Amino acid sequence: MKHPCILFLTILLWASLSCNKTSTIVKGKVINAQTGNPVEGATIEFYNYVPSLNGTYNESIPEYAISDGQGVFQYTVRSDAKYASIYSAFSNNHIRKRLDFEDFNIIMETTNEFTIPLIRYNTYLHLHIKNESGHNGSVHIAVNNPTLISEARTSWGRIFITQYPLELGEEKSYILPLVANEYTKIYWGDTNFISNQTEPTHKDSVLLMLNDTLNYPIIY
Questions:
Q1: Separation between Cα atoms, residue 179 and residue 34, nearest integer Å
Q2: Rg of the chain's alpha carbons, rounded to an integer?
């Protein structure tokens, strides 16, 4: 058993180190990638990695900050976090940006500053789905917009739609915000080619113009 004085000094030292721990602060600005103007009301998503109760792994706990009228945000990482990361940033009318861990690496026990550019949607794809054959199967659709995929940095940038059976003559519409002046690929079929990793029945590529709405029919 430790001597009471040694035990007391150990507790005192631990308390002193805990109290003297410097806060980890993340602050910065969210801007429009094209214009450089501030983006108000953007959500910045943080992950705090906190030791689990049994200490075998670090549990990820999400928390959020919101940019103000000047696009500025500030966030203080949880004091019990071993490390933290910025996971994503998103806002109305802008593409959700999955942030790269290296470019936006948070250094603990100091103040970190970042500028986060978001790309604004500037065109629309209007999908019109209609059952003209009486076919009762589902229609599976995938839309690949290059900018959405690059901002997500993973397959999450693809838009997946499964339209369950429509009655004969019934129609359904979807309006998808996208980025103009680049070729967007559309895949669709009556089998779940997404989950089955098979070739879709139909493939197409369309060029969307700036501030336009492209009507695209899918008839089966």
A1: 12
A2: 25
Alpha-carbon dihedral of residues 33, 38, 39, 40, nearest 10 degrees? 180
Alpha-carbon span 179 to 23, nearest angstrom: 39
| Alpha-helix residue ranges (DSSP H) falling in 78-186 | 146-152
Sequence-ordered list of residues with C-beta below 8 angstroms from that of 8, at least 6 positions apart, any chain: none
* Edge-to-edge order in the sheet of strand 83-90: 58-66, 43-51, 83-90, 97-98
- Kindly report the CATH number assigned to the domain that includes residue 198: 2.60.40
Degrees, nearest 5: CA angle 154-156-160: 140
Least confident of 9-18, 60-69, 178-187, 197-206: 9-18
DSSP per-residue string spanning 48-86: EEEE-TTSSSEEEEEEEEE--TTSEEEEE--TT-SEEEE
Whether residues 108 and 135 share a domain: the answer is no
CATH number for the domain including 88? 2.60.40.1120
Please give the residue range of the domain that contains residue 171.
123-219
φ and ψ of 191, to 5 deg: -115, 155
Domain count, the chain: 2
Query: Using one digit for the tens of pLDDT, what is the confidence trace for 162-198?
Result: 999 999 999 999 999 999 999 999 999 999 998 898 9
pLDDT in tens, 90-109: 999 999 999 988 889 999 99
pTM above 0.70, yes or no: yes
**Domain-located, residue 33:** yes
